[in-house]
Write a structure and sequence with these properties.
The structure holds two protein chains of two kinds. Chain A has a domain at 1-45 and 104-156 and 197-325 and 511-577: 3-Layer(bba) Sandwich (FAD/NAD(P)-binding domain), CATH 3.50.50. Chain A is 20% helix and 19% strand. Chain A contains ten helices and 19 strands. In chain A, the strands form four sheets. In chain A, strands 1, 2, 7, 8, 9, 10, 18 and 19 form an eight-stranded mixed beta sheet that branches. In chain A, strands 6-12-13-14-11-17 form a six-stranded antiparallel beta sheet, with helices on one face. In chain A, helix 1 (22-33) links the parallel strand 1 (6-18) and strand 2. Chain A is globular and about 85 Å long. The model of chain B is unreliable at 27-37 (pLDDT under 50). Classes of the chains: A alpha/beta, B mainly alpha. Chains A and B meet through helix 2, helix 5, strand 6 and helix 8 of A and helix 2, helix 3, helix 5, helix 8 and helix 9 of B.
């Protein structure tokens, strides 16, 4: 006989937060610092970059030399989790495609993200083309929180005065690397706007913060930072919040559902503890979901009751709908003029040094929304993959004696080629706005559960011509930039691959599944990210986004979560939650 | 100058230098083999399943002794010792290839089959397997598969194998301590990035590049 039973806690917390990433971490930080008793549940392991980061390790310290066999972004990368997790399946519908990245660690995906920290602009919140719904709030509503996030966390960049790329409160950006100077020239020649990057890395000490060191330029933000020189929700939000004594974190706690009472209000959550595999229920006056756009929608849809038959906060039927990930398409080549270049340390910062904000007018184009371009290249640490495909490069340039070589080869002259080509490569990646559509969604698969017995998500997602034409434009732009910088490169990705357009979910900017809005019939959350149907339930990850711009989601998640947490504090004072 | 002072001299503030020294206190430089922990022990930042998996991969053996001998000869043909650094086998590239095909199983069949293809070619041409061939015969064979553009169509499978072998050899060599030094990677050390050095800017005429 099984001795499985549900262990019910007798404690009632002020707030329980599901998830410890940018959204959950920020809400926990604000609330714990205000004296609220918070319980945070994280589905993965405890992770403190100071101790757990693989920073400054050499490639030979990994038996797979940094290959991404068990971690999608390499053996030293900080990500626990990935697109496929043993025992945690998801499915797709109607032969559509979606790749769902799940992070399973304290701080979530913020431990390994690119730290590219862009504000959404006024037009992103209130689109002028009528194609997608407006947010129930404007840029001006969010701006004070973006400002506070800048000051609390630190971000580098430059004031540019661009209408839809709002400036922040910036630390100095890192100078461009050599390859990036070539890119700047090539982009300008191609008529593509290019400006210094914006990244959550402390290029200088953060005023007033004694717990975080300034960046020492190893370029390894993806591994997370031992001295907290970049932003991770673990190092900058959750761990400091623990020091208040008001926050308790339970790791390896996989949340099953939100529990509600006869009045339809949330009373807590149930979870399975992955360590002892026992079932638990905890009580709270307020429930905050910050489990990620997919996971928070899954929890709501699995939280069915007599009062909430279609899932919690879902009387509108929008939960799971309007799922959208950024578009992504990329290209690369090498700069023959940089062969045999001088060696020096140009690791730089682990976020972008330069980028191109969207620079064109969509009224003059055959697709409705824009994209930005991220660039890279330089003398990086060798890892698995170093020199692969040299036979596609070394036959294209003259050798040391001015003679064109036969491609491929072996021996001393090949060995010399690896040295000659080192540091010549360049890459560029477009990240664009995908349209939020009712028809792109996740729902509960009626037939499949994960190893904890929790019903899993089933995805239905199709790119439309809007996204495909945008990717085509990216490829054309990349060719022009590379041509203008004197690079050697291959042909553009063509229609057979949708112009290199990555499968939805691959860019890991998925948002929109629990959208905000003023109309409870058309949205799940009000303008404070509070459920229309359940006033003590809030969502603080990227699920509330009505329509993402081409900007990476993190900075907006942080600002919105801070805004919601401060609203909760006000409502608590008024005894409303 | 002690380490703290040298970190400060590099442009790191007192706070960063202190935090970094603290964080690196328990760090000792280990080789890949030494990095495998004692049973049951999970090093910081690793997941238990990863430690288990590495242990299992290290205990398993994929290539036969004969296959390893061929990989060693081929590796040293691809990356020989020269005036700057040692050969592929000096950098233990064959051991890396043995590990990586277990780690990334999609390499297994192409590698095993490619080695067999190579031996059959040599048996038909020279009456001996690849490792038993003379150096001149080995090079004669390699010349048929090392140049994708000029290789004859009947050598296509050999070209595909040699491309893979070349890639794995390059990965293994240039990620070894010897290879990283050879290629001149100068990073992975605390510093203050202040932009491209002046002499390099001048070399490429990049002194006056601006964003606007």
């Amino acid at each position: 006989m099984s001795d499985l039973q549900i262990k019910k806690s007798t404690t009632t917390y002020d707030v329980v937060i599901v998830g410890s990433g940018a959204g959950g971490g920020m809400a926990g930080y604000v609330l714990a610092n205000a004296g609220v008793k918070v319980l945070m549940l994280e589905a993965g392991a405890y992770f403190d970059p100071a101790k757990d980061s693989q920073q400054l390790k050499w490639p030979w310290e990994s038996p797979r030399r940094g290959a991404g066999t068990t971690r999608p972004f390499g053996d030293f990368d900080a990500a626990f989790g990935g697109w496929e997790i043993d025992g945690e399946p998801y499915t797709t519908k109607d032969n559509t495609e979606f790749s769902w990245f799940r992070s399973r660690m304290l701080g979530g995906r913020t431990n390994h993200w690119g730290r590219i920290s862009l504000r959404m602009g006024p037009i992103d919140f209130q689109p002028k083309d009528g194609l997608t719904d407006s947010w129930p709030i404007t840029y001006d509503d969010v701006k004070p929180y973006y400002d506070k996030v800048d000051k609390l966390i630190g971000v580098y960049g430059t004031k540019e005065g661009l209408e839809n790329e709002p400036d922040g409160i910036f630390l100095p950006p890192p100078k461009p690397r050599l390859n990036e100077l070539f890119i700047v020239q090539g982009a300008k020649k191609a008529g593509v706007k290019i400006i210094p990057g914006r990244g959550a890395v402390l290029t200088e000490a953060l005023p007033g913060n004694k717990d975080r060191g300034a960046c020492f330029f190893c370029g390894q933000c993806g591994r997370s930072c031992k001295i907290y020189g970049d932003f991770s929700a673990s190092s900058c939000l959750v761990i400091p919040a623990l020091k208040t004594g008001n926050l308790k974190v339970i790791t390896n706690a996989m949340v099953r559902e939100v529990i509600t009472n006869k009045e339809g209000l949330a009373t807590g959550v149930s979870y399975v503890n992955k360590e002892d595999m026992q079932e638990y229920q905890v009580n709270a006056k307020t429930v905050i979901l910050g489990a990620s756009a997919g996971e928070s929608a899954r929890i709501l849809l699995n939280s069915r009751s007599a009062e909430h038959p279609g899932g919690l906060a879902n009387s509108s039927g929008v939960v799971g709908r309007y799922l959208h990930d950024s578009t992504g398409s990329s290209a690369g080549g090498f700069l023959p003029q940089l062969m045999d270049r001088k060696r020096y340390n140009e690791d730089g910062a682990g976020s972008v040094h330069i980028y191109s904000p969207w620079w064109l007018d969509n009224k003059k184009l055959d697709f409705p929304r824009g994209y930005h371009i991220e660039y890279g290249g330089g003398l990086h640490m060798p890892s698995y993959g170093f020199g692969h495909g040299i036979q596609n490069m070394n036959g294209m340039v003259p050798d040391r004696n001015g003679k064109t070589k036969e491609a491929g080869g072996y021996g001393a002259s090949l060995k010399d080629d690896y040295r000659r080509f080192y540091g010549t490569q360049i890459g560029m990646a477009g990240r664009g706005t995908a349209i939020a559509r009712w028809d792109n969604y996740c729902e509960i698969d009626p037939n499949v559960v994960d190893k904890y017995g929790i019903p899993v998500l089933r995805f239905h997602y199709k790119w439309a011509p809007d996204e495909i034409k945008q990717a085509k434009h990216m490829q054309e732009t990349f060719q022009e930039i590379m041509h203008n910088m004197g690079a050697i490169y291959g042909p553009p990705a063509g229609p057979e691959t949708n112009y290199g357009l990555e499968a939805p979910g691959k860019i890991i900017h998925e948002v929109g599944t629990i959208r905000m809005g003023n109309d409870p019939k058309k949205s799940a959350l009000n303008k404070w990210c509070q459920a229309h149907d359940c006033k003590n339930l809030f969502v603080v990850d990227a699920a509330p986004f009505v329509q993402q711009g081409d900007k990476n989601a993190t900075w907006t998640i942080l600002a919105m979560s801070m805004r919601t947490a401060e609203y909760i504090l006000q409502e608590r004072k008024k005894l409303n939650v | 100058m002690n380490r703290r002072d040298s970190l400060k001299a590099l442009g790191l503030g007192t706070l960063s230098a202190g935090l970094l020294l603290e964080a690196c206190k328990t760090e000792t430089k280990k080789t890949a083999e030494e990095a495998v922990p004692a049973s049951g022990e999970v090093p910081p930042g690793r997941q238990p399943f990863e430690v288990e998996r590495d242990k299992k991969l290290n205990a398993d053996k994929f290539f036969t002794a004969a296959e390893m001998a061929t990989i060693t000869v081929l590796g040293d043909i691809i990356i020989p010792k020269d005036e700057k650094s040692g050969s592929a086998s000096d950098a233990k590239v064959p051991d890396f290839i043995e590990f990586i095909v277990k780690d990334i199983p999609e390499h297994q069949t192409p590698m095993r089959g490619g080695l067999r293809w190579l031996d059959l070619q040599c048996l038909n041409r020279f009456g001996k397997t690849f490792t038993d061939c003379s150096k001149a015969e080995q090079i004669q064979m390699v010349d048929l598969i090392a140049y994708p553009k000029k290789a004859t169509p009947d050598m296509a499978q050999g070209v595909a194998f040699f491309n893979r072998m070349r890639d794995l050899t390059a990965s293994g060599f240039f990620t070894s301590e010897m290879g990283v030094k050879d290629v001149g990677y100068a990073g992975n050390a605390p510093n203050k990035w202040v932009g491209v050095p002046a002499d390099v800017l001048k070399q490429y005429g990049m002194e006056n590049v601006s964003f606007s």
